[in-house]
Structure formats: structure tokens, C-alpha cells
Amino acid sequence: MSIANKCVRLISKRHGVDIDIYSLPLDDPKVYDLIKTDTSSDVFGLESHRMHACATMVEPNELRHLIALQSFLKPYMAQKFSEYYKNKEEPDNIEYYSDIEETILKESYGVLLYCEQAVEMIHQYSQIPIDISNTIVKYIRKNMREELDIWKPFFIFATRMKGYTKSEAEHIWDRIKTAGEHTIYRRNAAYDAMAVYQCYWLKAYYPEEYKDALVPFVNTDESW
Description:
- By secondary structure, the chain is mainly α.
- It contains 12 helices and no strands.
- The protein has a domain at 1-13 and 26-74 and 186-217: Orthogonal Bundle (DNA polymerase, domain 1), CATH 1.10.150.
- The longest helix is centred in the C-terminal third of the chain and has 20 residues, at 186-205.
């Protein structure tokens, strides 16, 4: 049983309040204020000093910010964090390569963070079917050069058919390939981000119950 579920059961037992953690309002300022200022290490996903620093700098106030933070758990994403932070602070200065890129990357302030974004970019630029675009992104993430050497000419040709020059098509391919190597699946990041938000909501409104839920058993007469 998760800490959040244990906490919910404690709240129900102590206060007679039944909470559905899957129906919480996702725009609660009190929750985001706690995320920005919390220095403890008791919420999985934001427990490290580095992630606390990232959260403090980003100052999340939407779930999409928490989703993005999950991508920065990997050390080699540090460069992307710097770009993300800068672009979030100065959104008017973001330079998108095309309308396609702006539509797909606007959520993450012009930074390619998610596999789904890379898949959509390949599909939108070249009209290569989604399932094949997804396979290409898998090749990119695994750095499967032989397979990528096969698909690159198809992408270049198809992108040129949409009106881009050869040099533009190659630039787009290289951008997707370089940025896509360390992408994560947004659906997984969203699941983890939701868990982070749920824990912080419980911690913000029921701190004692959350603290007690961190241990397997609160008292000898309160078992799970």
C-alpha cells in the first residue's frame, strides 16, 4: 500500500473524512507553495537535494511543471533543465523552428522532453505514420545507428515533399535525433507527477497523518 493510501485511511479513521486522491483539484496554491519551500526528503520523486533545487527554481504552479520535473531526475538532463528554466522565465524569447514545433513543444517551453513529442514531430513534419514514427523514436533512444541510417532518407524525402529544403529537413532530423536520445515517456512522468502532487496535497492539509503514514504501523491498534 502506498504512503498516500495509508494517509487517506488514517484521515478517514481519525477525522471521518473520505478523500479521493484521484479527484483532487490540481491547481491548489497551498500545495504548490509547499512544493516550492519544502526541504524534507519524504516525497518520492522530489526527495533529493538536486530535485529540491530544481523545484525551487522552476516554482511549479501547474501539473505540467511537475511532469517536466520528473524528466530532470536523470543527471544527463541537466542541460535541458537549464534551457527549460530559462525559457519558462522568458517565454517571449523562445525561438521555435516552425509552427509545428511550437504546437508540440509549447507545453515544455520549447524543450523536447518527452518521447511522445518526438513521435509527433516526426509524424507532423513527414507524415510518416504514428506507429512507424514511434518505432523511429525507439531507435533514437537506443542509438540504433543502422536502423536510423535506413529511416533518415525516408524522413528527409517526406519532409521535403512538404515544402522544406534538404538542409532544413536534415536540420529537423538532427534536432529530433539529438534531443530525443534522452527523452522519457510523458505518460510515465505524468503518473509520477500525480503521485508527487497527491502526497504534497496530503502533506499540506494533513501533515500529522502524512508523517504517520511514512511508517508501516502508526500504533499497535492502527494497522493497515
